[in-house]
Design goal:
The protein is mainly beta. The chain has two helices and 17 strands. A twelve-stranded antiparallel barrel has the order 1-2-3-4-5-7-8-11-13-14-16-17. The radius of gyration is 19 Å and the shape is globular. The termini are far apart.
Amino acid sequence: MSRPVQGGRWWAAGLAATLTLCAGSARAGEGSGGGLVVYEADLAGAKNPDGLLLTLGGFRRWPLQGEAAGLAASPYLQAGGGVAVSPAYAAGKVHGEWMPHPALQLRAQYSWIRYFGDYAALLSFPSGDAAFGRREVDELEGEEEAAWGQRLLLRPILRFKYGPLLVRNVTDFAFCRFDGQGPYFLEWDYCTLVKDSDWIISDSIQLPFKIWSGPGAEAAYAGPFFEITHAEAADITQERAGLIAAWTLSDRLGPLTQPRAYLQAGMHLRDPNREGEFYVVFGVGFDLD
């Protein structure tokens, strides 16, 4: 039986889709220095690989001049941070984000990660072509390292709206460092092997349709996606495709704003260990006044 691990990028992508697609941004109040202050909480799980992640965070957003052009938000500057905790690790994160135009978001994020030395993180492998499927990971139980990791993420997002269709293209440039033995490490957020001081490049195109809308911010979106990920040093390329769905359930539920749920389900089309296998990610979250 596979042990639970992290896999935070998968549900983070679903959450980003939820917040971007559904109408409006939740507001937790006006900051004393101007701009919107938003606090967020999300809990998500994944299967193949297995995972569980709690994310808590917040940000301050300063609107800029400009029109929304039919998309969900007007131009803005944003700064924020938060923590993410799973059975395998805890991470602190800070980010800055700039939307110069409703069709373009630019995010820079730094994560400082503490691996607990359990639940398949942090594991070392001898080479970039080593197998790292479920059986190989289970056989390495007890060899996890309690160590530190760092990740610098640059993420441009392009989005265009055409009637009920929203086209989103999300690109990740992730630079990773680890303090473990190595020389290669199993990086569970992208489910691949990376070397210390190594790059992971990922691109995902999403085509969600607005399939339902209610009063206020209530809305539901669903549609296909395709994703390709490449680990530089190990020269591993992976491809996945499937369905994404996101729901904003209401404007408010008691003290909670924008309670939401999101789903990502698909198949590993190209993968050295999971090719032809299905996976699923499901999460729920809310913002707080």
